[in-house]
């Protein structure tokens, strides 16, 4: 792992108040394997940038992570696609960084919130060229306007993952209750591999779905374009579930080349020490494992796979 003190820290607003527009550092620093994205809390990162209700989504990307990846892998004016857009974090950060953006999302409720978030980002002075469409990303490039073929500079996305790790908890009124842990109001009864929402499939169906999504993005990429997938591992019954590794396998099965592996560490550097931002669920699982004498580490990172459709394209900005 790279020296965290040297790691690229996403641009920050120390105050956390008001709406920050981090933008991209110029000149751009060389890319490093490790991105520190916990210098600000998630609340500070999202403050004023997303409309009420967005917090109900169970698996949003950290805004500073989306911003860092967009700045690292695109130039102003280029087009970013998120085919699994949720409430539109990647689109919002693209807008704030003066990139153009388009997203696809299957659940109508998240589509409506993503649209409202795009409008809010525009009102804050970002690019005007952004939109969200409702559709099934496993059928891409179907569903995308024909004129976008060969126009996308960066696909930036994250698949749904580990439902056992989702949701917020409330315990001040006695018993611990869990909320905001569902991808839709109407969850199908079974984890059928044919469910359109990948979150409602079993693992094999999820990986098949990710493969289809990635393969469908390829015709949309412009020469030199990249596909960046953020995926988080988790533990189930004390064992590591390697969604990042399976995501890489999905990319390879989709005919992509893996050009870089990066890692986003959700921790702040304070007084020369890393202070982790873990979730309640990750901490519970780690503690339960340790009680059973399994000395597991607390997961506080996302893995980032950078793919290109062909190796000659390389990885823009990347100097390993
Ligand atoms: C991990 S979440 C993305 C969250 C997003 N990055 C954000 O910060 O809001 C994955 C999203 O993919 C959506 N999704 C799942 N299957 C889909 C499909 N077949 N087509 C389009 N969207 C899908 C889910 O509804 C979910 O909102």
DSSP helical segment count:
7
| Rounded Rg | 19 Å
DSSP strand count: 15
Derived from helix and strand composition plus strand pairing, the structural class reads alpha/beta
Please identify which CATH superfamily we are dealing with. Answer: Vaccinia Virus protein VP39
| Annotated CATH architecture | 3-Layer(aba) Sandwich
Low-confidence parts lasting 5 or more residues at pLDDT below 50? Answer: 1-21
- Give the proportion of residues in helices: 10-25%
Bound molecules: S-adenosylmethionine
Distance between the termini: 12 Å
Shape descriptor reads: globular
The proportion of strand residues reads 15-25%
Highest CATH level, the class = Alpha Beta
At the fold tier of CATH, the topology name is Rossmann fold
What is the string of helix and strand elements?
EEHHEHEHEEEEHEEEHEEEHE
Task: Give the biggest beta sheet.
Answer: 9 strands, mixed
Please list the strands of the largest sheet in the order they lie side by side. 1-2-12-15-9-6-3-4-5
- Compute the average pLDDT: 83
* Total number of domains: 1
């Amino acid at each position: 792992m790279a020296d965290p003190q040297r790691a690229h820290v996403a641009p920050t607003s120390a105050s956390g108040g008001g709406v920050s527009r981090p933008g991209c550092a110029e000149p751009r620093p060389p890319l490093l394997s490790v991105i520190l994205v916990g210098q600000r809390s998630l609340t500070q990162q999202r403050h004023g940038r997303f409309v009420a209700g967005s917090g109900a989504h169970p698996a949003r990307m950290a805004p500073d992570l989306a911003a860092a990846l967009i700045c690292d892998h695109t130039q102003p004016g280029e087009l970013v696609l998120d085919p699994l857009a949720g409430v539109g974090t990647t689109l919002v950060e693209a807008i704030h960084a003066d990139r153009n953006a388009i997203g696809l999302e299957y659940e109508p409720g998240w589509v409506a919130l993503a649209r409202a978030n795009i409008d809010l980002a525009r009102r804050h002075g970002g690019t005007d060229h952004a939109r969200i469409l409702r559709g099934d990303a496993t059928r891409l490039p179907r569903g995308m306007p024909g004129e976008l073929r060969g126009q996308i500079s960066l696909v930036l996305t994250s698949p749904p993952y580990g439902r056992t790790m989702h949701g917020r908890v409330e315990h001040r009124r006695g018993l611990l209750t869990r909320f905001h842990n569902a991808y839709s109001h109407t969850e199908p009864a079974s984890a059928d591999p044919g469910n359109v929402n990948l979150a409602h499939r079993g693992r094999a169906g999820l990986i098949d779905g990710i493969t289809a999504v990635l393969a469908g993005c390829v015709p949309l990429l412009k020469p030199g374009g990249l596909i960046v997938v953020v995926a988080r591992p988790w533990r189930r019954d004390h064992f590591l579930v390697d969604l990042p590794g399976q995501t890489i396998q999905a990319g390879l099965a989709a005919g992509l080349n893996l050009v870089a592996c990066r890692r986003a560490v959700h921790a702040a550097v304070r007084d020369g020490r890393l202070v982790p931002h873990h979730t309640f669920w990750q901490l519970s699982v780690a503690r339960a494992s340790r009680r059973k004498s399994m000395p597991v580490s607390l997961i506080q990172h996302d893995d980032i796979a950078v793919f290109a459709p062909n190796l000659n394209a390389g990885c823009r900005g990347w100097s390993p």
